[in-house]
Amino acid sequence: MDGAVCLRKHLEGLSLQEVMLDFYHLSQHVNEAGRKTLGEAGDAGKQWSEEVLHTARHQGYDPFFTTLAGWRGEQRKGKRKIADQLRNYLAQRKDMMPYEKCEQNGWDVGSGPMESMCSVTTDRIKRRGRRWDIDNAESQMVLEALYQSNLWDRYWAKVLAGSN
What we know:
mainly alpha
């Protein structure tokens, strides 16, 4: 997911193995901070971002955060504020960055599958001749997303077990 706290709250209660900050959104934040602190032009920001992201993806959160701490120490004034914003964003999402576990399990860390599902789900709701009010459209979207996520059986088993 994109790391939004409000989305994360909607997933609570589902027996998911992981809730992960997709690598695309992590990259956006790191690249933006690199450009703002190391300059828009030139290769310094790009090279720094690539190295930092490689660390996050292949060595894990702790070495990644340590690298960011060293970078932060080199920044002054407004640039240090940018570094702090990035570090705070990432610290709040530490548990959403198990990229090494994803690698071990063969899980996709990109945003492509999720973005695709959003499009497919919306298309299924908007087919010709379908009319929905806002409450029913949201319910229909939730059911479709649940079905597409392969959590349908687990969800209903949990719901039915709790209703007895």
